[in-house]
């Protein structure tokens, strides 16, 4: 269902929610076979329309690499669906838990139960993967789902609305398109769980709206994800992975490297390696189908404005434009390195979300760690190092949503790993089994057999209870000692 853009759009939104809510209460526990059919439909929805998906995202961006759409949106979506299908029987099986000696022969288990209706708010930067990835986990957990697509990707949203109705009907998945006011009304619905992916500022608004209904939320935000290059690390190896991670989707990635920390003695060599690597991967920019546009003029102006501010404050700006093309018109933004940016300029305070890379040099490695730890905890941290002891030290002394060592971004594509932020970069996890758990109520179940010892502790209390308590409390005391 695609919500109409009329004055009654919010009432249509409310009606769509109430319909799914009522269905979820009538049929609260889809069988394994039903969930498998739903996941199979999601797989076909993705695979059968690859060209349409790529064309829709390309239209929304003005130019979005169709190879990247298949590589970083369709492929991980399919991988996630296939993993869920293969693991689902194990995931939904109740887990046996131990029972204290004093309560035996009772038994206990944890039963995964669908929550009901899950809401998913999708950002514009990866509109396929960040819609279908959460949808995979929510369907695997047995829920009905409402998905709010970004107003910045109307073609992708319209395509998803048509495909969702065709593959799922109206009683399982509802896709909502609309402007910001529809997104606000969506966040205020009394979902059983709400997942939001987007900026920290909007995440605060979403959490505030959800709090009125005590709706539990998973927030996938962002922040300034650092790249920390250890002294003496191979500059060519580091440069290749930094450039790939930074220029993927023209830097419009929540886990993109946001700034670079490099030893003073290695800085010039690494910067030159980055320049050469950028030129090798993207020798031309203006007409290169592999290099994506910035999504719209608003974000283009934002990036330019931040550079102007930093330069005016004394920063040195180096633009990497290998072919020397005129890039003033259009929405092509080249890789731009920024040196000596003051800490109070916007570029050093806000998530960049574009192909600008501030470079910060350090004298001592612990100085770099202190720099990271003095800032809000990021969604990702990238360490380039071959020293195992130092690597362990970094992992133990920093807190981030996730880590890739000697690479960038790729930890997000590992479906056996949870994905999520910490503090300002988010809360909660999904992907794989963690996504299934997020969208389930892990319900504890205690079973009492007919023959049990509870008669020993019922009123009226007397000598039997006193005798038993001495042993119960004495045993607990001994076990602590």
Summarize the structure.
This protein is 45% helix and 16% strand.
Task: Please explain how this structure is put together.
- With 481 residues, this protein is α/β, with parallel strands linked by helices.
- The chain contains 16 helices and 16 strands.
- The chain has helices spanning 9-26, 32-47, 50-61, 66-92, 129-140, 154-168, 180-187, 200-211, 235-247, 264-281, 297-312, 346-349, 365-373, 388-397, 432-438, 463-480, and strands spanning 95-97, 107-114, 117-121, 144-148, 173-176, 193-197, 217-220, 226-229, 259-263, 316-320, 335-339, 356-362, 380-384, 402-405, 426-427, 440-447.
- The strands form three sheets. Strands 10-11-12-9-8-13-14 form a seven-stranded mixed beta sheet, sandwiched between helices. The protein has a six-stranded mixed beta sheet with strand order 5-4-3-6-7-15, with helices on both faces.
- Helix 3 packs across helix 4, helix 3 (50-61) runs antiparallel to helix 6 and helix 5 packs across helix 15.
- The chain is globular.
- The N and C termini lie far apart (62 Å).
């Amino acid at each position: 269902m695609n919500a109409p853009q009329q004055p009654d759009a919010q009432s249509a939104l409310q009606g769509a929610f109430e319909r799914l809510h009522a269905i979820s209460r009538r049929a609260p526990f889809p069988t394994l076979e039903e969930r498998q059919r739903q996941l199979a439909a999601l797989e076909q929805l993705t695979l059968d329309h690859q060209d349409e998906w790529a064309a829709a995202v390309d239209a929304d961006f003005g130019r979005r690499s169709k190879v990247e759409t298949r590589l970083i949106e369709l492929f991980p979506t399919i991988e996630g669906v296939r993993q869920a299908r293969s693991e689902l029987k194990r995931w939904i099986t109740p887990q046996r838990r131990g029972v204290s000696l004093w309560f035996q022969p009772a038994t206990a288990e944890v039963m995964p139960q669908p929550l009901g209706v899950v809401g998913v708010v999708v950002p514009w930067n990866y509109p396929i993967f960040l819609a279908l990835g959460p949808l995979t986990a929510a369907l695997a957990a047995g829920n009905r789902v409402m998905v709010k697509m970004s107003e910045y990707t109307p073609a992708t949203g319209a395509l998803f609305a048509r495909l969702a109705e065709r593959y799922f009907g109206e009683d399982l998945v509802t896709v909502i398109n609309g402007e910001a006011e529809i997104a606000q009304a969506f966040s205020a619905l009394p979902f059983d769980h709400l997942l939001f992916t987007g900026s920290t500022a909007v995440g605060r608004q979403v959490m505030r709206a959800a709090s009125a209904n005590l709706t539990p939320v998973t927030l996938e935000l962002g922040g300034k994800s650092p790249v920390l290059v250890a002294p003496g690390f191979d500059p060519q190896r580091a440069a290749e992975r930094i450039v790939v991670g930074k220029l993927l989707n023209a830097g419009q990635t929540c886990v993109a490297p946001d700034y670079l920390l490099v030893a003073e003695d290695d800085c010039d060599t690494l910067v030159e390696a980055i320049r050469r690597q950028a030129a090798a991967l993207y020798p031309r920019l203006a007409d290169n189908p592999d290099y994506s546009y910035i999504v719209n003029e608003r974000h283009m102006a934002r990036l330019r404005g931040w550079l102007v501010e930093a330069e005016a404050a004394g920063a040195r700006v180096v633009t990497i434009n290998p072919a020397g093309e005129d890039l003033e018109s259009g929405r092509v933004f080249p890789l731009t390195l920024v040196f000596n940016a003051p800490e109070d300029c916007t570029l050093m305070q806000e998530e960049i979300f574009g192909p600008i890379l501030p470079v910060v040099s350090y004298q001592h490695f612990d100085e770099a760690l202190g720099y990271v730890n003095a800032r809000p905890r990021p969604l990702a941290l990238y360490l380039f190092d071959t020293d195992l002891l130092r690597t362990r030290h970094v992992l133990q002394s920093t807190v981030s949503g996730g880590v890739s060592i000697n690479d960038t971004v790729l930890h997000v594509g590992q479906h056996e790993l949870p994905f999520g932020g910490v503090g300002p970069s988010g809360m909660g996890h999904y992907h794989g089994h963690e996504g299934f758990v997020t969208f389930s109520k892990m319900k504890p179940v205690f079973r009492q057999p007919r023959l049990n010892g509870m008669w020993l502790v019922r009123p009226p209390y007397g000598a039997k209870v006193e005798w038993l308590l001495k042993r119960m409390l004495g045993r607990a005391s001994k076990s602590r000692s």
